[in-house]
Amino acid sequence: MAKNRIITVQNISIAVSAEELDDYICITNIAGAKSDQSRAADIIRNWLRNRATLEYLSVWEQLYNPNFKVFESEHFKKQAGLLTFTPSISEWVEQTRAIGLYVKRGKYGGTYAHKDIAFEFASAISPTFKLYLIKEFQRLKEEENDKKQIEWNAKRFLSKNNYLIQTDAVKNYLIPQNTYSENLEWLAYAEEADILNVALFGFTAKAWRDANPELAGKNNVRDYATVNELTVLSNLETHNAHMIREGKDKKERFNTLKEIAEYQLGILNTAEYIKTDDKNKSIT
């Protein structure tokens, strides 16, 4: 379902609809910058009967609409300029299967145009108005992008905390039995991701999936890692990339990464324990 927002350009309220393809702007509202809203339909109709407009619309449709009927659009162009030629948006859409324009009924009703076309229409109304329209539209998009970023960060935070609830309560998965640290034959065929997995967790991704078939469909072991483990993992990736550039073999890299993982994870977990213990003491 389309989501409508309202922007105000030179004291004129203009609806913006978020459609599947992109944002569409109500050109019926834009027409209000030239005359009373009651004459908006006539203004749009006069704009549509112009050959330059039809050329622009046809090129736009050919660029973005594989179902556009070019042959039918030529009939419109041939009649452009004739006094008897008074096409409507509905006729243009129905006969050419255009997607750049559409007519909406009910609340926020009117003629809507893809933002590219809406800006072109605004040029015909007033070049100055077009500039203010673009500026206000860009402001809207910046606000929406900021909001999406905040929502994404919040979801990531909540998601991570959900994982922590699972891992802190009881490692909510089975830990595979392994001898990866003692028997290094697996290294010859291991991918870089598994070298990191074994260095940090002590087992490969496949071993975790085999031990946890119910969870493996939608998750992997890293989804159940703690913040400290993910922090160390990020550091391991950097160290590993550096050692690869130095030409070190898998065995040497694995041993180094395992030492780094144990050392860093030990420091982080100890610091977290001390912090938690201090908090508990202050409460009591």
TrEMBL record:
Query: Superkingdom, according to UniProt?
Result: Bacteria
Residues of the signal peptide: none
For this protein, the record's SMART domains field holds: KilA-N
- Cross-referenced Pfam families: KilA-N (PF04383)
List membrane-spanning regions: none
Q: Which InterPro entries match?
A: KilA/APSES_HTH (IPR018004), KilA_N (IPR017880)
Residues covered by the KilA-N domain:
3-140
Q: What protein is this chain from? A: KilA-N domain-containing protein
Species the sequence originates in: [Clostridium] hylemonae DSM 15053
